[in-house]
Design goal:
heterodimer, A: mainly alpha, MetI-like fold, two-stranded antiparallel ribbon, two-stranded antiparallel sheet, globular, B: alpha/beta, Rossmann fold, CBS domain Like, 2 domains, 6-stranded mixed beta sheet, 4-stranded antiparallel beta sheet, 14 helices, 38% helix, binds adenosine-5'-triphosphate, binds magnesium ion
Chain lengths: 682, 344
């Protein structure tokens, strides 16, 4: 068709030609890619030739001073603003006190003991819970929740923390978990209930939740730091903000999932609205709600190191300082301790979530003493070890002499690998950098902002029509206006490269996992473990092996973002209508044809959603990888954080959020379009 | 105290789904036609229903899936608000009642059994059965005593500390029945209570239900899409089609005088002997000779067919007052059994 050919020559054409171009996928993408590649490659020469610097740099004269204005606003907010007659600062102080008081209490219990006086003159009146008492308590909890096996796991994990010298840091981390989880889970539950009951709350919360899902954590780190100051309270606030939205979502989904009949039963027997909620709806939704609580716990642990950037102590802080000092052994040691803690809490909360009514029934039998034997004995052990600890100090504190430090071992192991396999590792790194990462980087960072804005809008138009195009134009336009085009492209490059590699590894794994029950178990366990590990843990060994730089960052991001690619691919394959596959077999497809002609095309929408999740996870890794010297938006946030520069922090954080939202909306719209085409969704 | 014999009555009841249903109803003078519904993309889940349910009667609502049975029953129990019409419970208009008043009525006077049992998974059998009383604030001892009574009534004694997940489907529905009886309701709604059960269990539960009703004599609104079940249990049957009640009649009348083709289609394959009474096929007057016995005229043919077929003589038929109204022999019974008579 001649029309299509003219379009090829003039991609910026309009009218029916543009419509035709938008409709043909291959033509569209090929045109866009080739023209972008050309423009990206020659942009610099063009600028030299025309002496028009604005081509590659957005002129700073055109930039509104977003950062300065936001900083000024935040200062005003903190110093002069009044809400309902209360000074804003008083409100934040009040909030801080509400969080700090219970936190101090828990910290006293687990770490500090009861202390009288301040600073140098402080006298410890009562010691904290002894390590023996804590280990006994978690073992009891394990047995109460499920079985002796779980009790052994709990004992093993906490015993590890004591024996390997991580006790005190671990207890600090545990204390913040013990405060953040109830607040996030309880608050999320209440907000979820409100949203379920009141339409206007739901309407108000929904866009906020959508935004929170795409905004990476560090977008709000700096404002929190600004409002609450450097310290554990800021860390807790950030953690709670991070972990609450999923809980709200899960609660709403759980309540909506309660069978209509049960709701009717409640009304039929004459429940008041309150009885209806607390006697019928919440108990019926409890299994799903508990899944949300488990998520909150895992998210809280995930935040441990990020939180330590704004003042949390404990294991996260140990990892952070080790990373900064490039202390291999110390980093791995503390990192493993976090993993151990995460495994223990994850198993415990998961088993609790899946407790059957029979278990509950069995425990409800017997007299008062028998029913409370675990709680009573734990209290008794606490008391006994406290008394015994006065005479035998090793009962109170695990003796330092018996601690085993693995730090030196890890340092030596890493050194050995580095020395022995240096050439191999270096070769791998060089090849991937030279032939893949650097060209992609050149491609993205070369794109002049005008063309980038235009191309992004065009993609939006193709995926979701004019409204999406307008949204994309605004979001990308704001990034340009803020003067962040180049670091934003660095971000896109680093994320893009990692996401491609994660998909290349993850999708085949997912397809393989869907193939048989055996492979599913193995890969499922692998992916579960990946997800349990807090994100930054990946960073430590990678940095040790490949040193700082984009390559290390990429590997860490890939490891962290792999899980959704595997999951969605497996889920996509499993949810293909078996009749379609049978039809393929009957028509004589070979297994390879079956995969290429039937299965792969059918799972594309699912893969797009997986890709979406992968991108979100990758973006959320950015500030962590900033520690290994990347030069993208994550690094800018990190710098803003260290300088406590609110304006910069917010602007850069929002820029990352805008990238996330753009990617999210475009991919979601494409997935919808494809499903409609495949007839899966109307 | 003079009670009217009608416990629940609805007059010109409408339930319409779609955009601004009240306005839609008003705009069409309170009686939109099928064409109106289609033109405006509205769903008339219940259209102009008029029902009077007498005390102590088993009133069965039946119809195909989507015909509006559940919606009608939920209007009758005020679980959903009807779009228009009147609803009179025990002589009182209840559409205008406040939520508070409705809660009171439901707590004390209505019970409901659900298709999928609607048992609370976290409560034991005993606690489930006591739940309606718990909600009312009855103290624990009293409510558990009462719950034990109803559990025994439905034959689940000894299982009161099990959880719903540990029971079979039939047992779960027994718990559902026990729970709905715990408050001694005047009006008992059952929405397809046996549809989720296997055929054998279903039959057993129907027998159980008849046994209970013989003892309790409740006023019952029973939904089913199974015509066999309807004729086994019903005093009267309302047949629904596309939200409208096409006919309200006794099972026998439905078979003999279906109001339209839809009802006729429903009843076509029903064995006549299950529905017709001896009186409907008898020859009038007492027999002159060969009388071998007497039978009640309102007995269903199925129940006595074997007896009549095996004997060579004729049976005289008595009505409820004991007067002889007609007689019947092997010939009439065989006619019905092979489908030569009885409206087929
Ligand atoms: N909340 C609702 N919104 C819109 N339409 C509804 C709603 N509830 C019911 N309907 C419609 O009303 C009609 C009657 O539904 P209803 O559930 O009363 O049928 P039913 O006879 O009980 O069917 P079944 O045997 O499947 O239970 C159906 O067409 C249904 O789609
Ligand atoms: Mg129904």
């Amino acid at each position: 068709m001649s029309q299509a050919e003219t379009e090829f020559a003039a991609p910026a054409g309009q009218g029916s030609g543009l419509a035709a171009l938008l409709r043909k996928p291959w033509l569209f993408w090929a045109t866009l890619f080739l023209s972008t590649a050309l423009i990206s490659h020659y942009a610099f020469d063009l600028y030299k030739a025309l002496d028009a610097r604005w081509i590659i740099r957005f002129p700073s004269a055109w930039q509104p001073d977003f950062e300065g204005r936001i900083s000024a606003f935040m200062t005003w907010l903190l110093e002069d603003a009044r809400i309902l007659g209360l000074q804003f600062r008083e409100i934040t102080r009040g909030l801080a006190a509400m969080i700090e008081a219970p936190y101090d209490l828990v910290l006293d219990l687990f770490v500090r003991g009861l202390v009288f006086g301040q600073g140098q003159q402080a006298v410890q009146i009562l010691p904290p819970l002894s390590w023996v008492a804590v280990v006994y308590a978690v073992v009891a909890l394990g047995h109460y929740t499920k079985s002796w096996a779980l009790a052994a796991l709990m004992g093993g994990c906490f015993g590890y923390l004591a024996v390997f010298g991580q006790w005190e840091s671990a207890m600090v981390t545990l204390s913040s978990v013990l405060i953040a989880v109830p607040l996030a889970a309880g608050g999320g539950l209440l907000l979820g209930i409100l949203a379920y009951r009141l339409r206007w709350v739901d309407l108000m919360l929904r866009p906020v939740l959508d935004l929170m899902q795409t905004v990476p954590v560090f977008a709000y780190l700096v404002p929190i730091l600004f409002m609450f100051g450097f310290g554990p309270v800021s860390a807790l606030v950030a953690t709670i903000i991070y972990a609450t939205p999923p809980m709200i979502r899960v609660t709403i989904v759980a309540l909506r999932g309660v069978p209509e009949e049960l709701a009717e039963l409640g009304r039929m027997v004459g429940c008041t609205p309150r009885q209806q909620m607390w006697k019928v709806m919440v108990p019926s939704a409890k299994p799903t709600i508990m899944v949300g609580v488990n998520q909150v716990i895992m998210l809280t642990l995930n935040m441990v190191i990020i939180a330590s950037m704004i003042g949390a102590g404990g294991l996260g802080y140990d990892v952070l300082t080790a990373l900064r000092r490039l202390d291999i052994g110390g980093g791995i040691e503390a990192g493993i301790a976090i993993v151990v803690l995460a495994i223990a809490l994850d198993r415990l909360s998961q088993e609790y979530a899946t407790r059957t009514v029979e278990q509950t029934a069995r425990q409800a039998q017997g007299g008062w003493l028998r029913r409370h034997r675990w709680a009573l004995s734990a209290a008794a052990v606490a008391l006994a070890t406290f008394l015994a600890g006065m005479v035998l100090p090793w009962i109170q504190n695990y003796p330092a002499a018996a601690e085993i430090s693995t730090g030196a071992f890890w340092t030596r192991a890493m050194e050995y690998i580095n020395v022995t396999y240096f050439d191999t590792l270096d070769a791998i790194k060089t090849v991937i950098l030279q032939w893949f990462m650097l060209p992609v980087r050149a491609f993205f960072t070369g794109i002049p902002w005008v063309w980038g804005l235009f191309a992004a809008t065009l993609i939006g138009l193709r995926a979701g029509g004019w409204r999406l195009a307008a949204l994309v134009f605004c979001l990308v336009g704001l990034i340009v206006l803020a003067g962040l085009w180049t670091p934003a492209m660095m971000t896109v490059y680093l994320c893009g490269v990692s996401v491609v590699i994660a998909s290349v590894i993850g999708i085949p794994l997912g397809i393989w996992a869907a193939g048989s029950a055996g492979s599913n178990r193995v890969i499922g366990a692998f992916v579960d473990t990946l997800q349990t590990l807090p994100s930054f843990v990946y960073l430590i060994p990678v940095v040790m092996l490949f040193r700082v730089g984009d390559f290390s960052a990429m590997i860490a991001i890939v490891a962290y973002a792999l899980a959704p690619a595997v999951r969605y691919a497996a889920h996509g394959i499993r949810s293909i209508d078996p009749q379609v596959i049978e039809a393929g077999i009957v028509s004589g497809c070979t297994p390879a044809q079956l995969m290429r002609r039937i299965k792969l095309p059918m799972i594309v929408p699912e893969l797009l959603l997986g890709l979406n999740q992968t991108i979100m996870l990758a973006l959320s890794m950015l500030v962590i990888t900033a520690l290994v010297g990347t030069r993208d938006l994550g690094q800018d946030v990190y710098i803003a954080l260290t300088k406590a520069d609110t304006g910069q922090g917010i602007v850069v954080g929002l820029a990352v959020a805008f990238i996330a939202i753009t990617a999210d909306r475009i991919l979601a719209a494409s997935a919808r379009q494809m499903r409609r085409k495949l007839g899966i969704e109307q | 105290m003079t009670h009217s014999s009608i416990l629940l009555e609805c007059i010109d009841l409408w339930k319409i789904y779609g955009h601004a249903p009240e306005d839609f109803l008003k705009a069409h003078g309170g009686a939109p036609t099928t064409a109106d519904f289609q033109a405006q993309h509205m769903v008339g889940a219940v259209r102009n229903a008029n029902v009077r349910i007498a005390r102590g009667e088993i009133f069965v609502i039946m119809g195909l899936s989507g015909s509006g049975k559940s919606t009608l029953v939920r209007c009758l129990s005020r679980l959903i608000q009807p779009t228009g019409g009147q609803l009179i419970f025990d002589g009182e208009e209840i559409l205008g009642k406040s939520d508070r008043q409705l809660i009171e009525i439901r707590r004390k006077r209505m019970g409901m059994v659900f298709q999928h049992f609607a048992l609370l998974p976290h409560l034991t059998v005993l606690q489930n059965a006591a739940f309606p009383l718990e909600v009312q604030g009855v103290d624990r001892q009293t409510r558990e005593r009462r719950a034990l009574e109803v559990i025994e009534l439905v034959g689940l004694k000894g299982r009161e500390n099990r959880y719903p997940g540990q029971l079979s489907g039939g047992q779960q529905q027994r718990v559902g029945i026990a729970r709905s009886l715990a408050v001694e309701p005047d009006l008992w709604f059952l929405d397809e209570p046996f549809s989720a059960l296997d055929p054998l269990i279903r039959r057993e539960m129907q027998d159980e239900f008849m046994r209970l009703q013989a003892m309790l004599k409740k006023t019952i609104v029973f939904i089913t899409h199974d015509f066999d079940e309807a004729i086994r249990l019903a005093d009267r049957i309302a047949v629904m089609h596309d939200g409208e009640i096409v006919q309200i009649a006794t099972p026998e009348e439905l078979v003999q005088n279906p109001a339209n083709d839809y009802v006729a289609e429903f009843t076509r394959y029903v064995p006549r002997a299950k529905v017709l009474t001896l009186g409907s096929v008898m020859r009038p007057g007492a027999a002159e000779s060969g009388v071998v016995g007497e039978l009640p005229a309102n007995a269903r043919i199925e129940t006595v067919a074997d007896q009549i077929e095996r004997s060579d003589g004729v049976f005289n038929l008595r009505d409820a007052d004991g007067a002889t109204v007609g007689h019947i022999g092997r010939r009439e019974v065989i006619d019905v059994l092979v489908g030569r008579r009885g409206g087929a």
